[in-house]
Write a structure and sequence with these properties.
The chain is 86% helix and 0% strand. The two termini are 31 Å apart. The chain has one domain: Growth Hormone, Chain: A (Up-down Bundle). By secondary structure, it is an all-alpha fold. Helix 3 runs parallel beside helix 5. The longest helix has 37 residues. It is built from seven helices and no strands.
Length: 213
Amino acid sequence: MFNVVLEQVPLDKLGLMMGVASLITAMATAVGPSLGGMIVNTFVWCMIFIAGCLLLPGCVLGALLAPVSGRLLDKFGAKRPIITGNIFIILATLCYSIFAKNMTSLFFIIFYIFFAFGQGFSVGNTMTNGLKQLPENLNTDGNAIFNTLQQLSGAIGTSIITTIVSTAQAKMPNNLAFSTMLGSQSAFLLLCVLAFIAFICSLCVFHHMQNEK
């Protein structure tokens, strides 16, 4: 789908249409947990439904923001939406780690909305801006690399975060709730550090692009 957009859409509307394409793929994460929860809820697994509802507002917002942020890229360039998105991701992960010991459902929803806002502004536009730097004949290869890295980083990231939480649980098996909280707090601190590194990398890239001009 992204290859079709890259090949058929005019350059001045590329950000908007890449955002629409991201919206289509993001709707699966927005609707999937709640829909799956509704189905499973019929068989009394209500906690899955509740978890899906906690993620739903942020997932829907992130999906709807994708074409909006793409339009901002077309109008103002890539720097503003990407940097704004990075800041919101840093803020969300930092809040998750700070409030881990006093987390409530409301806090969880608000922080995830921050995260989804940042993701909607930065992820799709990063991909669009990166592909715009390539010659047209390399767009397909660039898109394939992005898709591969997304799948690979998702798998590696999930494994690392799961290991951090499970290690904390193994140290205190008699107090699973508290150990899970400590492990989650450490995991979010790591994500915050990685988000800050991504923010610095983005600043360096845009500074280099500005100097080239």
